[in-house]
Amino acid sequence: MSGTNDIMEQKREEQRKHSAAQAMNQNLNTNNSDPGENERKRFTLDIHKDLHYELKLQSLKQGKKMYELVEKALKDYFKNP
């Protein structure tokens, strides 16, 4: 479990280093993308706690949000069921 805590602390430290200007610039760049690209539907999903832990760990390691990893996994699955 300490590995996860170390990664989370490292991620927090990286976030502290970002300036407000960088964050605003990133948000502006994100808002210029295709409007339909960011359309999402929220739902609740129950998964095994070990899968949730691994998903959270991978999201921290890869610097991505958990939903991004789930979306990619689902897209890959539906392309090649």
From TrEMBL:
Renumbered to this chain, the Basic and acidic residues biased-composition regions fall at 8-17
Which InterPro entries does the protein's record reference? Answer: Arc_rbn_hlx_hlx (IPR013321), Ribbon_hlx_hlx (IPR010985)
Bias category Polar residues: which stretches? Answer: 22-35
Q: Which Gene3D superfamilies match?
A: Met repressor-like
Stretches for region Disordered: 1-43
Query: A GO term (biological process) for this protein?
Result: regulation of DNA-templated transcription
Q: Which named protein is this?
A: Uncharacterized protein
Biological source species: Lentibacillus cibarius
